[in-house]
Fold each of these.
Amino acid sequence: MQNEPRKADPMIIDSGKLSRLMSERGVTQIKMANEIKESDDSISRIIKGETKNPRIYLIYKIAKFLRVPVQDLLVDSLDLPND
């Protein structure tokens, strides 16, 4: 039997966690977008849950801006459906 390459676990942003962290810090999407040099539209889609898995560098920039570990922004892998 041939070993198949293992799929990487998706890095899916939890929009609820992101919204809560932003609210706790008094941060608006416009302020965050400007500070991390991303479009307001891009940040808006992440907050609304329309963009589930943005680029890893964008996740990193959001986490750094909010001063949290990247893991604090992600959906818990136990909540993901099994394929």
Note: The chain has four helices and no strands.
Amino acid sequence: MTGAIAAEFQPSVVMLELNLLDTSGFEVARLLRGQAQGHDLRLIALTPRREHAGLELPRVAGFERYLLKPVAADELASLFPVTAPEKPIQGTIGAALG
């Protein structure tokens, strides 16, 4: 199911809870990475469990970052910097912006 959802929506970033009920977040990460579009996917691990923090497992599983819950808003915002588009926006809104 996870693979089918990712294939349909083709996300560029997935924030993934490691402590899932039916499987582990590490297994989901492995499945996502195994898909063709999974190689460029940014995986960010989320968990309330501090014992994962010192382990290499999140990095080995392909996670770019490991965040402990609760995540501060500024820490979360730092993962997604806002940049100006390289090309002007097309259409009526783009024309209004200049």
Note: The first strand starts at residue 13 and ends at 17.
Amino acid sequence: MDEGNPIAYTVLVPGVPVYADDGERVGSVERVLADTSEDIFHGIVIATEYGERLVLAEQVRALHQLGVNLDLAATAIASLPSPGPLGTSSPPGGYGGGPTAA
């Protein structure tokens, strides 16, 4: 599958398909969570069949123009946390800085 060129989180747009580590499509990008003033990528919120789910930056393998690849199995998507209001709530342990929707 051709997902286009690698991209930075700053140009990732809503609607881009999201794929599990086995290539199965598990959702689409809703929004990017980042501290743009510090240039820190915190993760993404994805729309899934289970509702919106929070994917942390360390769970994202690659960002491309036409697809996001995760380091997660498709079966793990349902157990990901739901984002808080506007995607700003952090999971236990936090982010080390207040994420904002980029």
Note: The first strand starts at residue 17 and ends at 19.
